[in-house]
Amino acid sequence: MEYTTGAPSWRLVLRRALGGLRPRRRTQRTRGWSVVVPLIALAAGLLFTTSARTADGTQLRDDRRPQLAQLIADKRTRLAARAKTAAKLRAEVDADSARLAETNLPVKEARERADALRAEAGFTALKGPGLTVTLNDSPRRAADIGADAPDNDDLVVHQGDVQAVVNAMWAGGAEAMSIMDVRVISTSAVRCVGNTLLLHGQVFSPPFKITAIGEPTGMRRALESAEGVQQFRDAVADFGLGYTETVERNVTVRAYDGSSDLRSARVAE
User: Fold this and answer.
1) pLDDT in tens, 16-52
2) Contact, 121 vs 185, CB < 8 A?
3) Spatial contact of 118 and 111, defined as CB atoms under 8 Å apart
4) What is the DSSP string of 153-177?
5) What pTM, to 2 d.p., does this model score?
6) Comparing C-alpha atoms, which of 167, 70, 183, 196 is closest to residue 126?
């Protein structure tokens, strides 16, 4: 039997007849999407549920800075109230011990020894000539370009800068000192968190004011010779940080009114 070239063969006719029964690639894709779409919907549902629980009825994109500022203000208010209560309790204890000293000789002698050390320990106010040093952040902002462009660390006052000034003034003959009008004693620790100062549980923002009672000339000489202070003065010239020295004719450094308890101590080598 001869077949013409224009007519389809029986194999081709059979293949065309059965072609409609074969699964197409489109059908395979549809089956794939039938599995993927529920998984995507499940993941989206979990995401929406997590967001709703995190928001807790609020807008996640809202600016939370006002809430943070209010939280800080509330914490400061509670801290001030507790400090006031602690001062009241210390006054009551002192009054009770004073009454007891009238009839108890050992208590009287202990109070006399303590009173003799109160001035040196910083528990009495002191008044006289002195020096005030003020440190401030730079008004500049960190630049994005340039090899010599300053970064954020170059433009703020650091913990080491405050400590350098404090140590230099002690070395220069300071008799009493306060930072931000808070009396510092031998157990005081100066710490910085970002560009804020943490002292005796209180947080302060720059400019940082350090006042010391003593002979101003000696303290100024000590500041000039202190390496850390000189490095800060170089940064003042390079990055616009603030540094001022003010001679005080008659300034008062108030008494330390915080806790005198020591949690731990060790003898320096």
Assistant:
1) 444 444 443 444 445 555 666 777 877 887 777 776 6
2) yes
3) no
4) GGGS--HHHHHHHHHHHHHTT-SEE
5) 0.62
6) 183
